[in-house]
Q: What sequence folds into this?
């Protein structure tokens, strides 16, 4: 979970990104994060076990698709949209359009925010 | 290898396409076929065993990325560019640009044509 575990922009590879995005849950996470906001892991809602979601988050991070930040005991995640767009122009746009059209990953969403 | 084994255009799914394109040899085959020409399998040159290449071709076909045609005892293959562009606009373009830039799949090519 350390910052050191993120590939630098130039180290992000097409194949690892394609592999990371070859899963509907991971595509769903990318769709949720596509608004550019950083989210706490606890905010993410997905129809998989917590450990499975954790694995998916790790795959996305290792591929350079997301950046994870640890604050105290909580993990936050955001999409590395700038890095991905710089490395592979148009790829994330095309993926998001296709996923939106076919509703791929729609089972992933955000939990309702608890009242303060 | 029968025509029946190809998904119809509407049956092509984003996830299967992403999975199929999460491999450098398969990306290389797509790059070779990106000129739109149909090629005999024997024309393809890749640094893998014949059986491995055959497996890769099967993955591409099953995902709807390529169309394979059997003529006598020879297999021919072409990219389903129209179907892919229709289903997922911009995706193949972005992939080919990224792969070209990073030289992903450059180890796949065409054999020199034998003199007649």
A:
């Amino acid at each position: 979970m350390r910052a050191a575990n993120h590939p630098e922009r130039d180290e992000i590879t097409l194949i690892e990104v394609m592999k990371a995005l070859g899963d509907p849950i991971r595509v769903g996470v990318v769709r949720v994060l596509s608004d550019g906001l950083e989210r706490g892991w606890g905010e993410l809602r997905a129809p998989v076990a917590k450990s499975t979601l954790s694995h998916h988050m790790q795959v996305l991070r290792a591929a350079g698709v997301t950046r994870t930040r640890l604050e105290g005991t909580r993990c936050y995640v955001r999409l590395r949209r700038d890095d991905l767009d710089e490395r592979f122009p148009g790829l994330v746009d095309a993926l998001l359009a296709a996923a939106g059209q076919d509703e791929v990953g729609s089972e992933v969403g955000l939990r309702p925010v608890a009242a303060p």
